[in-house]
Every structure is written in structure tokens, then in C-alpha cells.
């Protein structure tokens, strides 16, 4: 389920209360968690990790319906550089809470970082040939990935998935598609808005799907790398 419209159930609250450690991004992404983490002892707030290089949207970019999600781009898990910083902070926190197993956490972190480096090198090699190929995404959530791999993002339909794109945006995108140099328009499985179909009608631009939430990736060790490869595969296929 998308964090944008999630509501905690009583069973969720109990899980949080019983946890040795709660890891969350922060109110910019999971506003539904804000009140519950205040009374929690061990909390790691990702957005407050020192040295974490987070992107910032333009001022006012994320204000809507009276809510302000802040100007921080919360999709850090799409950026290999950011993920490395977060993985280290999580390992440090685990070591602090459970010093008897410090060696175990350190070894796991090292293995994770090695795999991260291997995976990003492999992805880089695959995406280099399509780096110049322009595309549109459904919502502005892929900046960390795009910056890391040097992709040619031309624009987005909406800033935040729960905001419907305006007519002006749609006309601009439709006009841009007509120029003939756009390779792909990406939708997302969580939102398959009719607006994308409307804009693409009559154009021969490729359509693809990006899943920022890794919905069909099985949760097991190494799943994060499966997710990165899946995402890069979706970019590569559509941009060729």
C-alpha cells in the first residue's frame, strides 16, 4: 500500500510499541507515524541521519490540499549513494542496541556494501547506452536513481501520486511527445491513471512501468539488489 494514504491499524500500533527499534523515514513520507514514534524509545529517523545527501524540491513544490510534505525528496531507497549511508546508520544502531552481535552486523554491512557496488557497476554498464534518451515519469519520485545513473528525465505528470495532473501539464507533455524525440512514458502499478493513456493517444512513444515500491519482489536477503536490477531493466527496455 502506498505510504501516501496509509492509516495505522491497532495491530500496527502494537507492533511498533513492542519493537526494539523503529526505523522510519520521517514525517515527509510517513506522516501517519509521527505521533506514535514520539513516545518510542529507540527510533532511527532516516531523514535526520548526519551526512545523508537528500534532494530538495523547489519551495512550495509539495504543498497541496493544505498538507505540506516538506521539500525533502523522501525516495532515498532509489539512490544507491543514499542507501549506503542509511545501511551504515542502521548497522551502527543495531550494534548499539545489541553489542553482543556486533561482528554479525558489521559483516552483513560489508557484504551489503560490496553487493551494492557490484550491482551499481552492472546497472551503469546497462544504462550508459540509453543515458541521452528522454522520458517522462508519472510522479517525481526517481530523482536519486536518475542522478546516480545520469538519466535524461524530461518531466513528470505530477509531483505527488495523490495529486491529479492539471490540464496545462497534460497539454505540455502531449506537445512534447509530438516532437518525436521522447523515447518513453512510464506509469506505475500503484496508479494507472487514464491521463497517461489520454496523453499518449495517437503517439508512437514507448510506454513502460516503473514500480518504486518493489511490490512483486520477494522479501529475502538480497531483495534490494533484485529491486534495483528490476528498476534498471524497466528503464533500459523502454528507452532502447
UniProtKB/TrEMBL annotation:
Family membership: Belongs to the bacterial solute-binding protein 9 family.
Gene Ontology biological process terms from the UniProt entry: zinc ion transport
Keywords: Ion transport, Signal, Transport, Zinc, Zinc transport
InterPro entries per UniProt: Bact_metal-bind_prot9 (IPR050492), ZnuA-like (IPR006127)
Alphabetized GO MF terms: metal ion binding
Protein name: High-affinity zinc uptake system protein ZnuA
Keyword Transport among UniProt keywords: yes
Superkingdom of the source species: Bacteria
Species whose genome carries this gene: Vibrio comitans NBRC 102076
